[in-house]
Amino acid sequence: MTTKKKPTIVWFCAITCNGNTHSLLSANSSRFELLLNSFDFIYHPSLTIDKSLEDILNQEEKIDFLLVEGSISSNKDFFTINEDSTFNHLNKLASKANYIISVGSCASFGGVHAKFIQNDDICSINKAINKDIIKNLKHNIINLTGCPVHPEWILQTLFTLKTYGKIAIDEIGRPKELYGTLAHHGCTRNEYFEWKVEGNFGQKEGCLFYSQGCRGPMTHSSCNKILWNEVSSKTRIGMPCIGCTEADFPRNDMLETKKNIGIPHEVPLGISKRAYLSMSGVAKTFKIDRLHKKLME
């Protein structure tokens, strides 16, 4: 009786802080064990020892799942791995892959490196990979955005693809199941948001939207439904959402709510500014003593 071959995973680290690797290692231990038992994790520069990157580049066998962490550059004077550019390495690996997953916001959209490093050719993997290679993939490139990405999002995506061969994605390549709701959904501070009771950074109570720059109402993410370490999230500990799953991350002046004559420049998704201001005006006329008392405790 022959044993069914497990699908292979290659994890390529390009220009990265390795935050997504650290995130993967913080996954639920039983889930991570299931990952290793269900897939053949053949290469990661920090986690595997049996094969080198050169071995993977030279092999003829296909790669079932190519996971890429970090942004890409073709400039050899800027950043190289084994004396070659991340651009060349990526295209060689991509030509062998059946599925390609961008792990984190840098791989998905260029992220921090594309914004702050003065090098115009730093980009996402979607822009870097030859279009003829993309046409031969079994699926569109999947973007798992986040800085870093939630480890469970990686696992769920891999298991869905392994089981069904496809996954529903939104207009910028994110799995709908994971990014179809907002970080605001499931936030424990929603009642404060509704009654316009503002808190401060680090406080256990109060909304962080009006003066602390929280992007929860505009950010597609399941952080407050699939909790980090199964217990918490940024907003639950008093940290404003910084919108790291969106294509425009990182923005200027994070942790600040841009306003015009006291009116937020951006309002929550799905509602017109006029309607939002009308509702906010009504809510501010009420003082909910119970909420203010909790805020002061």
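[next item in queue]
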Amino acid sequence: MKKVITFGEILLRLSTERHLRFSQAESFKATYGGGEFNVAVSLVNYGMNAEYVTKIPNNELGISALKEMRKLNVGCEHVLFGGDRLGIYFLETGTSTRASNVIYDRENSSMANLHTGEIDWKEVLTGATWFHWSGITPALSQNAADACLEAIKVAHEMGLTISTDLNYRAKLWNYGKEPKDIMPAMLKYSHVILGDIDTAYFMLGLDKVDPDYSKGDNLTALYDTIFKLCPDMKYAATTLRYSVSASHQRIGGVMYDGTTIFNAAVQEVTPVVDRVGSGDAFMGGLIYGLNEEPLDKQRALNFAVAACCLKHTISGDYNLVTKPEIEKLLSGDFSGKVSR
């Protein structure tokens, strides 16, 4: 069985309940999550072998996060203990015309203080075929960025397929560096990149663009520029999200393989239960689809979009849907009828 390694920070998520504002909350629901961990959870749900690598404090919260990994059957053999605290994020879930709001409390977390040389990446990656990281990790600190680049280089040397979700978080880049200072050296090793074209240009230090995803010919030229700067690239994908309101999303997708543009039909998603983690669900679905044999690129994109749509119906960070549920959606069944 193919093995995927994902790398990033697991977080304690504290969210208001029943769409309350922070100022109204008298309690917070505690769960766990994090972009790369969410991807691993999706892959396990689809029957793949996925392991998550992170650094957590050796205290009750760190151990609780480790238990969460085990509960969800995500491999955690190489989780590193150290540092003083687990990263936290607070979520105020929006509804209708009021958007959700996130406040991060991740400064000086265990992952932010991860240094190069702490993880034996050759040991971790032995037997794996795929390595996944996201732009969240290098946004945490220079130390985390250096450690992430170290992992990427070893994965490259060992011949793994490397995927990246750009995941730009403006609130995190606050240690004196901008994405264009850090990301180009990392993205050049990626085989699969998920993200908006304009975000990719921004992270690669290129001039701003405003892509029209309805015009395939224009997209080809824009994607080709990214391919030239990332010579190992095989696929560039973008989640198409048209936000009618916080409670109503329209979700589609586009993917380019260097030759052909693939499009997935836009689906209506309403009402939205929880939008957080939907991009990670897309990424998990895409990785799974690109690992299916025989490879069907259109199906891989459709699978990713269906996974993203279903995540909007799941409370919490990670996508707790199964492959049969996604297959049902792919077959055109959007009825939501009770399964008896």
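[queue empty]
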